[in-house]
Amino acid sequence: MIVRIMGEGQLTLDESRLPELNKLDEELLAEMENGDGPGFRATLQALLDKVHELGEPLPDDSLEPSGLILPSPDATLEEVRDLLTDDGLIPGT
User: Locate the PspA-associated domain: which residues (predicted)?
Assistant: First the structure.
């Protein structure tokens, strides 16, 4: 699966790793619903760090269709809300 982090680039990620990301996605969703700004910021960074840890970056000149688009590390709570589906940032997991 190709994952795009807005403002950073793309990584390839084995879909079998999505359950690991989903745990952080669920935390992020709960923090957003509770208006926990500091928790939201920390969990968003943890989610992006995990994607970097598990994924392999694509070359900068590569542009592949993304199966998953994640916000940039400095995204606001409101910007992330706009990206959410009923499943959170990571649909279908």
Answer: 1-92
